[in-house]
Amino acid sequence: PPGGGPGPPGPPQGPPQDCFACIAKPPALQQASPVLSPSSDVYLMESKSCKGDSLRPAVPCKHSVEKKTMTNPTTVIEIYPDTTEVNDYYLWSIFNFVYLNFCCLGFIALAYSLKVRDKKLLNDLNGAVEDAKTARLFNITSSALATFCIILIFIFLRYPLTDY
């Protein structure tokens, strides 16, 4: 103002909100600012979004010029799907392979169960789900056919064909 007295305070000239280099730098590493007169207290930055101490002198961001030529570093976070939800039917396959191996269907089910485990380790969720469906199908088929054959054997042992 022309009168020389303190005028209305202007907006603080702090670093922009999106300048990562200015916000992330700890206050101890920032350059010491020039000593401010008591009348310039109103120009202190009181932003709550700034990390570090909230009363820093308003200094224009030196990175705003560099920002146009620099590319901002990016962080890539890979989120893997939860593969623990895919059931591999391993114990069922082992039981079918040992006890109910009807026409080697229990062996085929065991092979697919092992493929599911391998694909889960490789984070191939789609392949693991498809092989789990196939292992379940072979387990169901092997269990059903072997159970049917065991029931037929008991029926024919109880009622031999010579009675008919």
Automatic annotation (TrEMBL):
Protein name: Interferon-induced transmembrane protein 10
Pfam family, one: CD225
InterPro entries: CD225/Dispanin_fam, IFITM_antiviral_protein
One annotated Gene Ontology cellular component of this protein: plasma membrane
Keywords, alphabetical: Membrane, Transmembrane, Transmembrane helix
Family: Belongs to the CD225/Dispanin family.
Major subcellular site: membrane
Transmembrane segments: 89-114, 135-157
Organism: Eudyptula minor
Annotated gene: Ifitm10
Subcellular localization, as worded in the UniProt entry: Membrane
